[in-house]
């Protein structure tokens, strides 16, 4: 999901015609990185609990 969000943001940024679109794609990109960070933290928590193989 994160990879797809980053691809959409990159593609949109490449063809955008105004700053409003730039802001939107920036929000998508920022959200993707936040989701990635949260998912990695959750994975680490599960590893520490022995729930992750």
Please give a structural write-up:
The chain is mostly helical. The chain has one domain (about 1-50). It is about 85% helix and about 0% strand. The longest helix has about 30 residues, at about 20-50. The mean pLDDT is about 95.
In brief:
The protein has 53 residues and is mainly alpha-helical. The chain has 2 helices and no strands.
Keyphrases for this structure?
mainly alpha; 53 residues
List the helices and strands and how they pair.
Layout: H1 2-15, H2 19-49
Shape field: elongated
C-alpha Rg, in Å?
Answer: 15 Å
Query: What string gives the helices and strands in order?
Result: HH
Q: Counting H and I runs of at least 4 residues, what is the number of helices? A: 2
User: What percent of residues are in strands?
Assistant: under 5%
Low-confidence stretches: none
Structural class: mainly alpha
User: What is the terminal separation in angstroms?
Assistant: 22 Å
* Portion of residues within helices: over 70%
Mean pLDDT, as a whole number?
95
Counting structural domains, the number is 1
- Overall number of strands: 0
The main pleated sheet reads as: none
